[in-house]
Write a structure and sequence with these properties.
Distance between the termini: 55 Å
Structural class: alpha/beta
Radius of gyration: 33 Å
Oligomer: single chain
Shape: extended
Helix content: 40-55%
Number of strands: 17
Strand content: 5-15%
Largest sheet: 8 strands, mixed
């Protein structure tokens, strides 16, 4: 019989997420586990006890009964002291834990002899992405931050031209292009806002621009590498910070919505949007601070509150963005838990094999067998490869550009004259020996090749496929010859003519169909 895994109701005030959903329970049962849940644990996320029962989950009435029954306890929030008291040898707790900030809880778990797997300590390596609960929750927080900003902004994100007048688009600045920042950029862009984004890692500029936002560049020689901090941005130097703040002061009067996401685990949030920047913003503007839990990136942020500054700027400092989308958050987090259990159950027999040689399991384990195993050794694989320095392209002077253009023109002209002279000589040579009838057809053929080449050469590369498809369709005019042969008295000729009609017909219809589909890719729906 496999071990039992259970999820209690979260006792943290306002927490609506749950660590096990009926869908994830079905997957855990396939791994050989029996699933248990406390009554009402999924209610705030829209999951009833009956839905769990239908998935084969045992529903118990109290948290005490669940902790006594389950061998593995899966939670969302870090455990309270009373919950750690219910652990013991042979029990495993899987939840967010934040060991650097919760040393007392760490000592308590060690004293209880329980194994604790911290989902916030999963190393950021490619193989562990499916278990990266921090990224899952940050993705939701970034999306929800834009929704909260829109709710407090009071105007459209997208620009509109209506009979009642013209509405300008909102300007959104996202500070920090991690998971939450990229989610915010994607959401703001899709809503039609003009989106700007800043990050201390210049290598993320490509990602930002690929999502339709504009990267905010600084006139500064960047030598930092985010890889050293396990995938997070490194703290910036005082000189860089001054340039950064100066750029933000320049942007503040134009920006309608600011979303700050800058946070490094284990550190207080850096102050990036200062009081004077808030004062420079237009009345009705909004600042959403996703780092509020660690002090906030904005000077005026108050954790878990929404305040309005003296000049009418709303500062949102909620710390429970994922919980405000409990159904989606629970689905993603329970999937992260399920993937963790898959790695912990290699034989799929409902028995945990805690392999401390595995980078992911070792990194996430903070206590085991009465010992504190935090902090873990660095993973053998680097989290993010260092960005290769880009070679600087030398700027040409106007005189150098002019000289370059003249040289290119001369070379092109020389090549074309040479080709024409050579082609003419070959035609004259052929005319000396070939009959006149051949030469008339040959000259038409050469001219057709020349015109066709010039036409194809000047077509954009992206349109080559539809052009070739339509050419295929048009060239199938040979179907007329096949149709004429079908009336022949020879049976073999009739069969060959019919086959020719069939193949030419496929070519015609296929050519037009491919052309239509390819051209549709260049049209806005």
């Amino acid at each position: 019989m496999g071990l039992k895994i259970g999820s209690p109701r979260e006792i943290y005030a306002g927490e609506a997420r749950v660590a096990m959903t009926p869908d994830s329970a079905a997957q855990l049962q396939k791994l050989g586990y029996e699933c248990v849940i406390e009554s009402g644990a999924g209610k705030a996320a829209g999951l009833s006890d009956d839905a769990y029962r239908a998935a084969g989950v045992t529903v118990v009435e109290t948290a005490a009964a669940l902790f006594e029954t389950a061998d593995i306890i899966a939670k969302v929030r870090p455990p309270e002291t009373s919950e750690v008291d219910r652990l013991g040898p042979g029990k495993t707790l899987i939840s967010f834990f934040y060991p650097a900030q919760n040393s007392a809880l760490l000592e308590q778990a060690k004293a209880k002899g329980a194994t604790v797997v911290a989902m916030d300590m999963v190393p950021r390596i490619s193989r562990a992405q499916k278990m990266d609960a921090l990224s899952s929750m940050a993705n939701i927080a970034g999306y929800r931050a834009v929704i909260e900003a829109g709710n407090n902004f009071g105007r459209f994100f997208t620009g509109q031209v209506t009979a009642a007048g013209k509405v300008p688009p909102a300007k959104v600045l996202v500070i920090g292009a991690g998971v939450a920042g990229l989610a915010a950029i994607g959401t703001a862009t899709s809503l039609g806002a003009i989106t700007y984004a800043f990050d201390v890692r210049p290598e993320v500029a490509e990602q930002i621009e690929s999502m339709g936002a504009q990267f905010v560049y600084l006139e500064f020689e960047a030598t930092q590498d985010g890889a050293a901090t396990g995938g997070y941005a490194a703290p910036s130097s005082p000189e860089f910070r001054e340039k950064q703040l100066a750029k933000f002061r320049e942007l503040a009067p134009e920006i309608d919505i600011v979303i700050t996401t800058a946070l490094i685990p284990g550190r207080d949030a850096p102050k990036l949007w200062l009081a004077d920047m808030v004062a420079a913003m237009k009345p009705g503007s909004v600042v959403v601070d996703l780092a509020a839990e660690r002090g906030g990136n904005c000077d005026l942020t108050v954790a878990d509150q929404k305040i309005v500054s003296e000049n009418g700027v709303t500062i949102v400092g909620y710390t429970d963005f994922p919980s405000r989308m409990a159904a989606q958050s629970s689905t993603l987090y329970s999937t992260n838990i399920r993937h963790m259990m898959t790695d912990l159950t290699p034989a799929k027999d409902g028995v945990v094999v805690h392999n401390m040689e595995d980078d992911v399991i070792r990194g996430a384990t903070v206590t085991k067998d009465g010992e504190i195993t935090y902090p873990p050794p660095p993973p053998k694989i680097q989290a993010i490869a260092a960005a290769k320095p880009k070679e600087k392209v030398k700027e040409l002077t106007p005189e150098e550009k002019r000289a370059q253009e003249i040289a290119a023109f001369k070379t092109q002209t020389r090549n074309q004259v040479g080709m024409l002279a050579g082609g003419g000589a070959l035609i004259l040579l052929a005319g000396l020996y070939a009959p006149a009838s051949f030469m008339s057809h040959f000259i038409v053929f050469v001219l057709a090749c020349f015109v066709g080449f010039q036409v194809i050469w000047n077509v954009s590369h992206s349109l080559h496929t539809p052009l070739m498809a339509i050419t295929n369709a048009i060239s199938s005019i040979i179907i007329l010859g096949a149709l004429m042969q079908i009336g022949s008295g020879n049976f073999l000729v009739i069969i060959l003519g019919a086959l020719s009609v069939l193949m030419a017909g496929i070519n015609i219809f296929g050519g037009f169909m491919v052309t239509r589909r390819m051209l549709a890719m260049f049209q806005k729906s």
